[in-house]
Design brief:
Number of helices: 13
Number of domains: 2
Order of helices and strands: HEEEHHHEHEHEHEEEHEEEHHHEEHEEH
CATH superfamily of the largest domain: Type I PLP-dependent aspartate aminotransferase-like (Major domain)
Distance between the termini: 45 Å
CATH class of the largest domain: Alpha Beta
Strand content: 15-25%
Strand order of the largest sheet: 4-12-11-10-7-5-6
C-alpha cells in the first residue's frame, strides 16, 4: 500500500504539536520513511546525512543490527512488567554496568523514562536528603547561567532564568541561585573569576542550598559552551567545603561524546548524584537513570519517611533496559575513543576556517561536537533549509549551528556532513 504523504503531512501540520513549535505548525515538517546508519531517507526518497544523532542519542547510528537483535529477543520474552515489587534480568544487568562504568562511589541506581525525569528525581533526592537530616531549610539549588536541565517544572527552574527557553515561567517556578557561567574554553587558562563568583554565592547561601546542579564540561542547549575541567574540580571541592550535594547532569555528555566515557572523568570527580539519558539506549528507546552514592541513599532511607516517593509507570522497562545493555556492550567493544578522536580532528579541520567568515562569532569543537556560533540569531531556519538541499540534516537553535554525529559515521559521510554544513552557512550569510 502506497503511503499518501501529502495527506499525512497535512494532518500532522494541523493536529500534531511538535517540540518547541506553534499550532498549527508554521514550520515545514519533513516526512521520514526510513533510517539506516547515519542516513535518513525522506518521504520523497531524498537521503540526508544525519548531523544530529537525534539530539545526541543515536551514537551508533540507526538500526544497528546488534541492538535490533537484542530488542527482538526481549520482545519475544517480556516487553514490559511493572517494577514495583518485581525485578528482572535486563534491569539488573544494566544497573551492574552503570555502577561499574560511572565514577567510583555511584552505586545506587534509580531508573526512569526521560532525562528531565532523571533530573527531577535527582532534585527530589537532594531535597529529601536534607529533610532526612532535619535541615528542611536547605531547599534551594545553586547552578550556573547558560545551563539547561530539561523541560519539566523542577528542571525548568534550574535552566538559565533570563536567556533560557523557559524565562516566561520565572514568576511561577521555584527561585534558585545562579552564578555566572563558567568561562569559555576547554583548554584556555583562566583567572578563576568565575569560580570566585560561584564561591561567593555558595558562601553566602550555603545554609539554604541543598545541591549544586551542573552540566559537566559541556553546557548543551543553553549555549553549546565548553569549559575547563579545573572549574569542575574546584566546584566539587567547594561543594564539599560548604556541605552541599553535587548533581552532575550527564544526560547529553554521557557515553563518550566528549572523548571520555563520562565528562566528570575530565575533572576526576564523583558527584553525589549523576543523571544519564539520551545515549543510554543508543537512541532506540526512551530510558534514563539517576545514580547516587550510598551516603545519599542511606540518609534518605533512614529518614522519617524512609521512602523515595517516586515511581514512573514504565520505570526499568525490560525492553528499554535490554536495549541499553546491548548499546553499552556495543560501545565498549567498538573503537569509540578512536572514532571520537577522528571526528574531533575532522571537525576542527572543517569548521575552524569559518572563524574568518564575516557573520560568524566563533567555531568550537570538543570530542564529537562541532559548533558554529553566528552573530545573528534569526538565520537558523534558512540555514536548515539550505542544508537539506545540500543533503544534510541539522537542527539549529538561536545563533548556534551545531553537529554531533554518530560515532561510527563513515569518513566519507562525515566529509559530506561538514561540506553541507559549511556550504549552507556560507550561502545564507552571503545573502545578508
Amino acid at each position: 500500500m502506497q503511503t499518501n504523504w501529502p495527506e499525512l503531512l497535512q494532518f500532522d501540520q494541523q493536529h500534531i504539536w511538535h517540540p518547541y513549535a506553534k499550532m498549527p505548525s508554521l514550520a515545514t515538517i519533513i516526512g521520514v520513511q526510513k533510517t539506516e546508519g547515519s542516513i535518513i531517507t525522506l518521504a520523497n526518497n531524498q537521503t540526508l546525512i544525519d548531523g544530529m544523532s537525534s539530539w545526541w542519542a543515536c551514537i551508533h547510528g540507526y538500526n544497528h543490527p546488534v541492538i535490533k537483535q537484542a530488542m527482538h529477543a526481549q520482545i519475544e520474552q517480556m516487553p514490559h512488567i511493572m517494577f514495583g515489587g518485581l525485578t528482572h534480568q535486563p534491569a539488573i544487568e544494566l544497573a551492574q554496568r552503570l555502577v561499574k562504568l560511572t565514577p567510583n562511589g555511584l552505586d545506587k541506581v534509580f531508573f526512569s523514562d526521560s532525562g528531565s525525569v532523571a533530573m527531577e528525581v535527582a532534585i527530589k533526592m537532594a531535597l529529601q536528603y536534607w529533610i532526612s537530616l532535619n535541615k528542611p531549610q536547605k531547599k534551594h539549588l545553586l547552578t550556573v547561567r547558560n545551563g539547561y536541565h530539561g523541560d519539566t517544572f523542577a528542571t525548568m527552574a534550574v535552566c538559565d532564568p533570563d536567556n533560557g527557553m523557559h524565562a516566561m515561567f520565572n514568576n511561577t517556578l521555584t527561585q534558585h541561585y545562579f552564578a555566572p557561567a563558567p568561562q569559555m574554553g576547554f583548554d584556555k587558562a583562566s583567572d578563576n573569576q568565575d569560580i570566585k563568583a560561584f564561591e561567593a554565592l555558595l558562601s553566602q547561601h550555603h545554609q539554604t542550598i541543598a545541591a549544586v546542579a551542573i552540566e559537566p564540561i559541556v553546557q548543551g542547549a543553553g549555549g553549546m559552551r565548553f569549559y575547563r575541567p579545573d572549574y569542575l574540580t574546584q566546584l566539587n571541592q567547594l561543594c564539599q567545603k560548604y556541605n552541599v550535594l553535587l548533581i552532575a547532569d550527564e544526560i547529553a555528555t554521557g557515553f563518550g561524546r566528549t572523548g571520555r566515557l563520562f565528562a566528570c572523568e575530565w575533572a576526576n570527580i564523583t558527584p553525589d548524584i549523576l543523571c544519564l539519558g539520551k545515549a543510554l539506549t543508543g537512541g532506540n528507546l526512551t530510558l534514563a537513570a539517576t545514580l547516587a552514592t550510598t551516603n545519599v541513599s542511606q540518609t534518605i532511607s533512614q529518614g522519617s519517611s524512609g521512602l523515595l516517593m517516586h515511581g514512573p509507570t514504565f520505570m526499568a522497562n525490560p525492553l528499554a533496559c535490554a536495549t541499553a545493555v546491548a548499546s553499552i556492550d556495543l560501545l565498549l567493544s567498538s573503537p569509540w575513543k578512536q572514532n571520537i578522536q577522528r571526528i574531533e580532528k575532522h571537525l576542527i579541520h572543517a569548521l575552524q576556517p569559518l572563524n574568518d567568515q564575516p557573520g560568524i562569532k566563533e567555531s568550537r569543537v570538543l570530542g564529537a561536537i562541532g559548533v558554529i556560533e553566528l552573530e545573528q540569531a534569526d538565520l537558523g531556519e534558512e540555514i536548515q533549509k539550505v542544508a537539506v538541499q545540500e543533503g544534510v540534516w541539522l537542527r539549529p537553535f538561536g545563533k548556534l549551528i551545531y553537529t554531533m554525529p554518530a560515532y561510527n559515521i563513515p569518513q566519507t559521510q562525515l566529509q559530506q556532513l561538514t561540506d553541507g554544513m559549511v556550504s549552507a552557512i556560507k550561502t545564507v550569510l552571503s545573502l545578508k
